[in-house]
Amino acid sequence: MKKIVLAGNPNVGKSVIFTRLSGIYAVSSNYPGTTVEISRSQISRDGVKFELIDAPGTYALEADAEAERIAGKLIDEADIVVNVIDAGNLERNLYLTFELLEKKKPMVIALNMWDEVQRRGVRIDIQALSQILGIPVIPVVATTGEGMKQLLQDLDYARVPIIVPSSHQERWHEIGQVIQAVQSFSYHKPTWVDRLKEATLLPISGFLIGLGVLYGVFWVVRFIGEGLINYILDPLFYRFYYPLLLGLDRHLSFSPFLRTILIGHLVDGKIDFEQSLGLLSTGIYIELGVVLPYIISFYFILGLLEDTGYLPRLAVLLDGFFHRIGLHGYAIVPTLLGLGCNVPGIMSTRILESKTERFIISVLISIAVPCASQQALIFGVLGKHGTMPVMLVYFILLLVWIILGVILKYTVKGYRPALILEIPPYRFPYWKTLLPKLWLRVKGFLKEALPIVSLGILAVNLLFMTNLFPYIAQAIGPFFQKYLGLPSEVSLVLVLGFLRKDIAMGLLAPLQLTVKQLVISSVMLAMFFPCVATFMVILKELGAKKLIQGTIIMLFASTLTGIILNLVL
Amino acid sequence: MVFLILKRCIVPKSADSFTTLIDMLPGQTGTITEIDHGHGLVRKLCVMGIIPGKKVVKISQILVGGPIVIRIDDHDLALGRGIASRIKVKIEK
Questions:
Q1: Number of A:B CB contacts under 8 A?
Q2: First and final C-alpha spacing in chain B
Q3: Is A277 left (phi over 0), alpha (psi -120 to 50) or beta?
Q4: Which of A134, A197, A412, A460 has its CA 20 to 30 A from that of A52?
């Protein structure tokens, strides 16, 4: 089976083309570095099967970052290379093209974002380009699927390029000549939209816009989440699911044990979705009724921010702060991904060149960057007390992130590379990439969360039944009361948070905590042990030694933060 | 703020050959004349199209030691101050 590798600069749309050709969704966003894992898929055309491979984006083939080495290796193994090019940025993209030409592999060029180029009044002579390079050049618009059929057909005409590239010093000169032969601009005057776009990058207006956007994000996440709960999920649960459970409850009267496991304890003679702790009552309700709506709203907004291209601008604005704590621009991408789920966030630290930076950012992500489940928890627990307590939790976490970063900067030695970050143009989010991304993330959440949360609920339930719960609470409880100002039951919640943060959600709810206690618990839950999955990925990416170091830092940081908060708030 | 203004006064702005991306004012256009840095970084900038002879427009300079934003070939790039101070430019009048 022939191997087809999609190769190109970061953020040219390789993953969108992969999704288009294979029907398998590969995560894509409007910023560089989204792909670090390699996606593979079989595609067939006219009965012939190919293996399609989506390589990480790279500017050159002989570079120092992990992602670029991977891309280089994939290209060596390829039978056909599809060089994906951002047509709006032809000149810079051609550098990699020339490096690919040297590999003497059969090639075709997919000239992506063709629609954008035409809107901007750039003219590219496709035939001339194809003639100069000696390979097929196909204009495509990956987001709408335009040109995909042609691209598949033209794989047959892929050939080893005729051009003999010169030395590296001469390369840009040569590319300049090609550009002159094939591309022409028509000047367009900057409009007010252009000015507005620029304003998001200027020091003062950009900062104000950033604050506005962040506040808007908080508001909309709450609005959508609460809307889903109040108007869709709660009515469904109380009107349809509740009677179902009652019926089941009656049928289970023969076995009190089974009844406690599945339905849970009755509160005031009724099933209470939050406090009964049965697999089918609390287990289902927490996941689907409380956490899921916030997961949906959060991922929707994150996807929107990712696809418009605003995130890298925010990153640039914040880079000064990043700099202070010894991190540089690229570290922002893992941090942002970590806001969705810590696991891909930590995996994407592969785009960083130095081990030191990877360690620092992984520790910072797992401690101070709350994932979507944690954020759902924060919104779910504190949302009813208004936007301020929620923002307070975020503010505290940000503060922890900064302080911890500064400390790590001075204690962890190592090389830290400088910032060079490409800022993608603003793009209108396209529902055909936005919705599949949302669906993939929500599906992933359900697949991972449901079994583990059920297990956790079961464990708590059993602990209650065997009276082990009071015992554990007694053992570590005094510490919690004395230093953190939290009831001893919270200690168990924290321990269970190790399995999954969202289990803790439902367990905090029935404890009748004050706003202050809720803020402290939320912060500590977010900082305390990352979930099992994050643990495993740190182990895999950085090794056992670093994991242990990270864990020690985490234990210190979270306990100390809790104690300080109890004193200050 | 005061510090920034002071800094701007002390640094000579139009001593042609010594002007770097840092000294350019937002909105100004210039041509890269030299990249004064080690081989690794020069190469890294080179593969992204940041080479002597290229026209740059400075878009912005973020506060608190933040990066410099420049436009090259109609595309925006953010560069850390350390790098920006090593890229020499000739400013167009």
A1: 108
A2: 27
A3: left
A4: A134
On the question of pLDDT at A328 being above 70, the answer is: no
Report the number of distinct structural domains present in chain B: 1
Q: Answer whether residue A167 shows pLDDT above 60.
A: yes
Sorted by where each starts, the structural domains of chain A and their CATH numbers stand as 2-185 (3.40.50.300), 205-568 (no CATH)
Domain CATH code at residue B68: 2.30.30.90
Nearest residue on chain B to A318, judged by CA atoms?
B66
Q: Tell me if B83 and A420 make a contact (CB, 8 A cut-off).
A: yes
Position of tokens 């570079």? A63
Measured in angstroms, the CA of B16 and the nearest CA of chain A are apart by: 25
* Complex prediction ipTM: 0.79
Tally Cβ neighbours within 10 Å of residue B78. 27
- Partner B contacted by A23 (CB < 8 A): no
| pTM tops 0.90 | no
State residue A140's pLDDT score: 95
Q: Highest mean pLDDT: which of A56-70, A278-292, A341-355? A: A278-292
Q: How many CB atoms lie within 10 A of CB A49?
A: 10
Which of A421, A426, A427 to mutate to test binding with chain B, by most B CBs within 10 Å of its CB? Answer: A421
**pLDDT (tens digit per residue) in A217-259:** 878 888 898 899 899 999 999 999 999 999 998 888 888 888 8
